[in-house]
Structures are given as C-alpha cells and as structure tokens.
C-alpha cells in the first residue's frame, strides 16, 4: 500500500494541472482523477506480477467517448473486483462496512422508542375505543414533526394509509398497531444489517458457512439457550442451519438469499428464543429450541447402535414408527450424500425435515427425487409398483390380506389427476394437494395401513364419541 502511495504521488508531481486538462479536454477534474487512479493501479499491479509481459492481465482502457457517455446514460452494471486485486477487494469491503454502519445508526434505539410511545399517547385522538387509543392523520403528522427527522422515515403517509385500511375506526389508526408496526420494521432492518455483515461478497446471499457464523454468534444473546453446553453448540448450529437451507435452497445451490431469510416464517421461531419465558409445549414445537434440538440429536444417537457417529441402512430402519420400507431406504442411500455407505448427521437432518414436513413443496421435491428411480422427472405405474412391493412385503409379514396394486395405482392417479394420465410429475404432486398422502402410502407401512383403514377408524372414533355422550 505504501509503494502505491509513493508511486501515485510521484506521478502527480510530474504532471501539471494545465497539462491534464490539455490531455483530457472533455473530462472533469473528478473524471481525470479517476482515470489517473485506474492507470496507476494497473501499472502497480503489472509491476508486481511475476508473469511475462505477454501474459499479464491488464484492464481495458476506457476511451473518451465511453466516459462521455456516462454523462447521458447512467452506469448500471459494476463488475466485482477480481480476487487478485486485493486493493479493490479491501476498498469494497470497507465501503460496505461503512454503509451498513451508517444504516444501523439510522435505526431507532430503545430510548427513541420510549419517546415515540410517549408522543403517541400524548397526541392520541379521543375518544378511546374500549381501552385502545387511536390517532387521526393531523395528530399523526404533528407527532412526526415533534419527534424529528429520524422518526419521519417511519411516520409516512403510506404507513398511515396501510394501517388505516385494516382499522375499525374510520379516519383513525390504532396507536398500538402503529407502534408495533414501527418496531417490526426496525427489527427487520436490524436483522437485514446483521445478516449482511456476513455476506462477504455483498451480493445478497449467504453460504452455509456464513449462516453458521451468524447463528453461532447469536447463541449467547438467546436466554432460552443459556443452559446449552458449549460442546453441543456445533450440533445446535448444524441443526438450525439445515432447516434454513432445506427450505430456502431446495435445489442445493449452496447459498440462500438474505431476502428469503427475512421473509420466511421460521425466522420468527428462531428469534422467539430471545424471550425469557416460553411455554413448554411451544418449545417442543419450535425446531430451534434447545429441547427440540436435543431431542433430534438424541434420536440420532439412539439409532447409532454401533456408536460410530454415522447411520447405516439397518440402523435407519428404526426411525419413527420403524415401518419405512427397505426399498425406500435403499433409494435414500442411493440418492443422498453418504460416506462409505453410511449417513452423517447433516444428511440425517434433511431426511428428518423431509419426513416431518411431507406436505411442503421442498419436502415433496426431496422425496420425489428418491421416488424417481429412472431419473426421468416423472413417476409411472412401474415406479409406483416398484415401491408398493415394499408395502406388500410388510402386509405379508403381518399376515394381512393382500392388496391389489392396480386398485392402489388407480386411486393414486385419481388423487393426483396429472396432466398426462400416464405419468405423475413433481408439479402434479405439489398442485394436487394430496402429495403427502401419495408419498406416505408408498414408503411407510404404518401410514399405508392408516390410510387403507381410514373409514373404519373414523367410524370407530364416531362410535366412541357417541358412547361418551
């Protein structure tokens, strides 16, 4: 860096101001300065390069006509700096950090929220509706003026109109609704800035390692995770990150959009851990809670009979009700990432998320890939029969009456109603609304038996209810 500075100063000393304007008659002072900077940076890069001159990578010089065109057509594309250009990389990283710090200072803090609440209470528009305060547009504008410039970006006419649309009081909006809306908006902006700090490329995406770093630093801020042992932190991070990537990256690109993270419903579940007290039943339903994460990992350890940290096909048979067919599990190990024929914890988490959320499109995408034995992008009668053989084997083992495959096949096609009557695509499976049922009766005997005897079970339940009455 010091060599570059010395080089730049030396070149500037050699050039007089009049000479610069004579050399670049159509450019402004800023454009001349930028051109000189680019030329000196290229010269410095070339001098540091050890390759022969004919192999050096230099920037294409811009002629005067190209630069002049920027006066009329705004530049809309900026290439990312090359990896070898450390100066540009550092400059971009520093600029992004300063930008995020500036945006963070624009957000309201706790003291400013207290001020906003007191102003809204003071200038609410009587009368009260029950115990709830309302405010009209005139007083709303007055609060914005008194509060100051920092608050006006939140107290806009658009915000008032949006809240008015759902208000039960004509011409007025609820004070508590306005305050909660403002808090939610600030919270989203804070989260966006926090996530962007881990987006080292600055393109609005997070890799798996980026997300892991973000979650790891969040753990100490969650009161609900205070009792979590440090030795379990890495497993907790893995459990948490897998849910984000399973649902937000079903095509396995290795990255997720920050925008998708902000708009997904389970981000609220994660940040719910900031609350001091959460009911026990709510914790059990929250994938990100300590009891839930420990339960998932505990089941994994219980399945690992040989205690080698991995699961074989034989060990995975014990998952859930223990009635997943061997044919289905064979396909799982054929399609999913394994190590010497065994499944690690990360692959197991994808498996669990798919089976526990079978109605979700991402889960159906995962399971469809396993069912698509021929890799044709659709399921045929042959495919359905291939998996139903596993169910028939279970029926035989339980000495149950055999089921005719053609009846099951016709029922599946009737449920799905595919565009092509001879094949079922992933799109057909998702749009029909019965994807969970179709998949379940092909891969799990317990689910098939419940479906096959659903009418008997409904009648039995109705009889029990009548008896209780």
Characterize the structure shown.
It is globular, with a radius of gyration of 31 Å. The protein has three domains: 110-190; 203-303, Orthogonal Bundle (Recoverin, domain 1), CATH 1.10.238.220; 310-459, Recoverin, domain 1 (Orthogonal Bundle), CATH 1.10.238. It starts with a helix and ends with a helix. It is mostly helical. A two-stranded antiparallel ribbon has the order 1-2. The model is unreliable at 50-59 (pLDDT under 50). Helix 6 (110-122) packs antiparallel against helix 7 and helix 12 packs across helix 16. It contains 26 helices and six strands. The chain has helices at 2-14, 17-23, 29-48, 64-69, 86-105, 110-122, 137-147, 149-152, 157-165, 175-196, 208-218, 233-248, 258-263, 266-271, 280-285, 290-303, 313-316, 326-335, 345-356, 361-371, 381-397, 405-416, 426-431, 435-443, 445-452, 454-468; strands at 134-136, 172-174, 205-207, 255-257, 378-379, 424-425. Residues 45-55 have a biased composition (Polar residues). Residues 56-65 have a biased composition (Basic and acidic residues). Residues 45-65 are annotated as: Disordered. Residues 200-276 form the PP2A regulatory subunit B'' EF-hand domain. Pfam families: EF-hand_13 (PF17958).
């Amino acid at each position: 860096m010091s060599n570059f500075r010395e080089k730049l100063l030396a070149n500037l000393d050699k050039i007089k101001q009049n000479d610069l304007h004579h050399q670049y008659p159509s450019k402004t002072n800023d454009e001349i300065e930028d051109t000189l900077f680019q030329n000196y940076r290229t010269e410095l890069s070339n001098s540091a390069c050890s390759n022969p001159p004919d192999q050096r990578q230099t920037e294409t010089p811009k002629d005067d006509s190209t630069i002049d065109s920027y006066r009329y057509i705004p530049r809309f594309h900026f290439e990312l700096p090359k990896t070898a250009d450390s100066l540009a990389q550092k400059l971009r990283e520093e600029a992004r950090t300063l930008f995020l710090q500036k945006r963070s200072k624009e957000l309201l803090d706790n003291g400013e929220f207290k001020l906003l609440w007191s102003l809204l209470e003071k200038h609410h528009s009587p009368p009260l509706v029950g115990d709830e305060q309302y405010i009209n547009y005139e007083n709303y504008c007055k609060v914005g003026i008194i509060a100051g410039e920092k608050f006006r970006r939140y107290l806009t006419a658009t915000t008032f109109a949006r809240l008015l649309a759902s208000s039960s009081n004509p011409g007025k909006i609820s004070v508590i609704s306005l305050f909660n809306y403002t808090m939610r908006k600030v919270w989203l902006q804070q989260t966006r800035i926090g996530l962007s700090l881990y987006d080292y490329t600055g393109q609005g995406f997070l890799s798996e390692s980026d997300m892991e770093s973000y979650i790891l630093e969040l753990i100490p801020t969650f009161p609900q995770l205070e009792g979590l042992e440090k030795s379990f932190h890495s497993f907790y991070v893995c459990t948490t990150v897998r849910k984000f990537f399973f649902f937000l990256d079903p095509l396995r690109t290795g990255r997720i959009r920050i925008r998708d993270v902000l708009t997904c419903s389970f981000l609220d579940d994660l940040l719910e851990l900031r609350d001091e007290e959460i009911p026990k039943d709510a914790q059990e339903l929250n994938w990100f809670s300590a009891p839930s994460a420990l339960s998932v990992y505990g089941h994994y350890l219980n399945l690992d009979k040989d205690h080698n940290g991995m699961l074989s096909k034989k060990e995975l048979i014990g998952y859930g009700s223990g009635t997943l067919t061997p044919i289905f599990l064979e396909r799982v190990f054929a399609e999913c990432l394994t190590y010497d024929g065994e499944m690690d914890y990360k692959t197991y988490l994808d498996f669990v998320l798919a089976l526990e959320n079978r109605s979700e499109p991402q889960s159906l995408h995962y399971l469809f890939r396993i069912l698509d034995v021929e890799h044709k992008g659709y399921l045929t009668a042959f495919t359905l029969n291939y998996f139903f053989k596993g169910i028939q084997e279970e029926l035989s083992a339980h000495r149950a009456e055999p089921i005719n495959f053609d009846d099951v096949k016709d029922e599946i096609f009737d449920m799905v109603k595919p565009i092509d009557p001879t094949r079922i695509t992933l799109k057909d499976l998702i749009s029909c609304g019965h994807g969970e049922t179709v998949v379940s009766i092909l891969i799990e005997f317990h689910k098939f038996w419940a479906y096959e005897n659903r009418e008997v079970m409904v009648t039995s339940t109705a009889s029990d209810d009548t008896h209780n009455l």
